[in-house]
């Protein structure tokens, strides 16, 4: 898969290759840019009670319903159950989430956001909304709609690529 992808990039026109490289640089900057550290602090806190992206993603889901089965939460987060468990443990440490066994089946664990978790999430949501409004102000309405559609397509394409990586390779090719 990787060699095929790089071969395709080599066959692009210079303009297409430049655009592809710009998208790659932008993606890297979105993930790792210097401003990202400040945004993480702004959204998720500073110091020992600061949350990480995965923990905030988990909290995002927890506030959407009254309770989640741990397995369903891991599926919704698209992570291994052990990764979801670690995120919940950290949220519990901060008093933002709680776990309890099902009354029907003690092997089933349900998790939910605490009142403190819902408040922490609401505070972060206000700050994220502030950023989105700022970003939207740099685009006209049509441009922002196009950006949204392109980002949806970008994420969909990324998901398709990852799905292909998860499929067993056919050795007959």
Specify the CATH architecture: Orthogonal Bundle
Mean pLDDT: 86
How do the strands line up in the largest sheet?
Answer: 1-3-2
Radius of gyration: 20 Å
Count of discrete structural domains: 1
The rounded distance between the terminal residues' Cα atoms is 12 Å
Question: What is the number of strand segments?
Answer: 3
Biggest sheet architecture:
3 strands, antiparallel
The shape, in one word, is globular
Oligomer: single chain
SSE map:
Elements (H helix, E strand, L loop, with lengths): L1 H9 L3 H19 L1 H11 L8 H10 L5 E2 H8 L3 H13 L3 E5 L7 E5 L1 H23 L3 H26 L7
Antiparallel strand pairs: 1-3, 2-3
Describe this structure in words.
It contains eight helices and three strands; from the N terminus they run ααααβααββαα. The protein has 173 residues and is mostly helical. The protein has a single domain (33-166), classed as Winged helix-like DNA-binding domain superfamily/Winged helix DNA-binding domain (Arc Repressor Mutant, subunit A), CATH 1.10.10. Strands 1-3-2 form a three-stranded antiparallel β-sheet. Strand 2 (97-101) and strand 3 (109-113) form a beta hairpin. Helix 5 packs across helix 6 (81-93). The longest helix is centred in the C-terminal third of the chain and has 26 residues, at 141-166. The protein is globular.
């Amino acid at each position: 898969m990787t060699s095929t992808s790089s071969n395709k990039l080599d066959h692009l026109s210079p303009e297409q290759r430049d655009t592809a490289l710009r998208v790659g640089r932008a993606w890297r900057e979105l993930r790792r840019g210097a401003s990202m550290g400040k945004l993480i602090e702004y959204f998720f806190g500073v110091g020992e009670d600061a949350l990480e992206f995965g923990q905030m993603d988990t909290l995002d889901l927890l506030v959407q319903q009254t309770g989640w089965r741990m397995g369903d939460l891991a599926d919704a987060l698209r992570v291994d159950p052990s990764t979801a468990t670690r995120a919940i443990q950290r949220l519990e440490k901060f008093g933002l989430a709680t776990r309890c066994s099902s009354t029907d089946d003690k092997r089933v664990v349900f998790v939910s956001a605490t009142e403190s978790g819902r408040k922490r999430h609401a505070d972060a949501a206000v700050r994220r909304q502030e950023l989105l409004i700022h970003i939207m102000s740099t685009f006209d309405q049509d441009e922002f709609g196009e950006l949204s559609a392109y980002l949806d397509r970008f994420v969909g394409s990324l998901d398709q690529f990852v799905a292909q990586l998860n499929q067993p390779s056919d050795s007959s090719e």
